Amino acid sequence: VLNTAVAFGASQALPRGTTYLPDDRHFAVQKESVSILGYTQRTEAYARLGTAAGREQALREIGRLAADAGGDPRVLSAGAGLFLRHGEEERALGVPRRARGAVPRRVGPRVTAATALFRINRLSEAEQVANEGLEAHPEHPDLLLIQGWLHGRAGRIAEAQASFEAVLAQHADSFDARLGLAQVLDASGRLEEAAAAYGELTAQFPDR
Fold it and tell me: How much is the average pLDDT of 81-93?
């Protein structure tokens, strides 16, 4: 049986199921010559170099995107999401705070902030941000996924299961929700079911 205080999400860099994070990551937004898509493409090109210099340049591009946002919450959200994708949780947290203030009900900045806080084990803060987001967006899959990992970390197994199942009701092929559900079965002592769930994951996602 898993030690849920440490095991839930421990194998994840994120939770990783944030295929939808942030909600506007793939937008090409033009505002005073600021193009999210252009900055994203340059950032990823530098990161793919696989060198320290390439990473430094990638982070510099993200910083420029955030600086050039002009208060546009979509641009700020995209910059925060890019910081998060490149393992810069603390820098990511500074950006969505501005975006959340600009548009309080916007979901992308809250997903980014909750994910960053989860990654660096500031779990009570992550839960607060996730719950605030869920009040306005009760069915958002990224927020539900983060909520599931938070419940799991706290040992709230039934609540974790409900969160993961809510994600799967919308996205049946979500790797992270299915992994979370397998961990729920494991933590509940339902070992045969957990083993089967892990086996299905390995078969369907051999590269994960």
Answer: 73
